[in-house]
């Protein structure tokens, strides 16, 4: 500090002391975290009292990123009482209804919150590959076209309240050996990376969001074939949001183990990736009812903090 500034501060303090007034002490304002996570939906496809999978990420205090858009998240968004004025990114892990069925409602909620032009960038899987086995899934760009294109089911939304522009980005979902996460978005300190996941016949994507030294990673629904990629992208993440649907074998139906990851394996993945914390979400009635056993199994390998998500939960990774 230079001499004039020191002198000014000294004279100000001297005046306060002579007048007998009590000096004003300004309390330090809490800093805004670079990342904050709101759980809009922590449930799965069943109507079990929870909204289905959906999350809202605040970047430097501004709600910006939706991760999945499961049914029920529209109501939870209203309960969260946050402004959508800056929300401009959607990350879809896959196109099952319990992850993408509420997308029109969330877009409309954003549309009626502003009269100015709205632009959304939407990332998601590239769709079913040929030759195809199992169910058909469109690419994310085709999915958006079917919903919001000129002849789409909700074509009216493009100019219903505010001009709405959607930019679709299809992410490759073929599993390859030693695949590397790809940066799909970067702006200042905010970086979003993605890599192919695996959820049986549903093309899927794993996402990681980094901002100012903090990070959160979303597994999406994932089976054993997607685990190497998840371990790679989640390395050292502050928070790994892991979908927890099944119990350890043989306590869930056999077919579910071809779609999801059991608790013991979740713990091993978290340990190997050196994640700092686990949030179990997309909970099924089984994992919710047997939550103590689920956590006990995970803690055989992973000793860091692990908890079960609830709708409305807010966390700072």
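-> sequence recovered:
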């Amino acid at each position: 500090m230079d001499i004039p500034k020191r002198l000014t501060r000294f004279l100000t303090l001297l005046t306060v002391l002579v007048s007998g007034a009590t000096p004003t002490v300004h309390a330090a304002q809490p800093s805004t975290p670079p990342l904050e996570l709101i759980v809009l939906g922590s449930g799965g496809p069943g109507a079990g009292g929870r909204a289905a999978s959906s999350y809202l990420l605040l970047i430097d205090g501004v709600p910006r990123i939706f991760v999945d858009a499961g049914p029920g998240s529209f109501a939870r968004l209203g309960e969260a009482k946050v402004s959508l004025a800056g929300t401009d990114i959607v990350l879809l892990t896959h196109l099952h209804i319990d992850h993408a069925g509420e997308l029109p409602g969330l877009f409309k909620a954003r549309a009626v919150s502003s009269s100015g032009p709205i632009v959304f960038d939407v990332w998601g899987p590239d769709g079913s590959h040929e030759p195809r086995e199992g169910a058909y899934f469109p690419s994310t760009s085709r999915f958006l076209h079917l919903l919001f294109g000129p002849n789409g089911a909700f074509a009216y939304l493009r100019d219903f309240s505010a001009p709405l522009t959607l930019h679709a980005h299809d992410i490759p979902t073929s599993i390859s050996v030693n695949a590397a996460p790809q940066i799909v978005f970067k702006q200042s300190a905010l970086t979003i990376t993605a890599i192919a996941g695996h959820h049986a016949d549903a093309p899927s994507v794993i996402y990681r969001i980094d901002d100012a030294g903090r990070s959160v990673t979303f597994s999406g629904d994932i089976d054993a074939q997607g685990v190497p990629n998840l371990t790679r992208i989640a390395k050292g993440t502050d928070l790994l949001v892991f979908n927890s649907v099944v119990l350890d074998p043989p306590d869930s139906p056999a077919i579910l183990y071809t779609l999801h990851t059991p608790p013991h394996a979740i713990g091993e993945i978290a340990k190997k990736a050196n994640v700092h914390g686990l949030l179990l979400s997309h909970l099924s009635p089984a994992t919710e009812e047997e939550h103590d056993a689920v956590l006990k199994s995970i803690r055989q390998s992973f000793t860091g903090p692990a908890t079960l998500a609830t709708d409305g939960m807010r966390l700072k990774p």
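DSSP finds nine helices and 14 strands in the chain.
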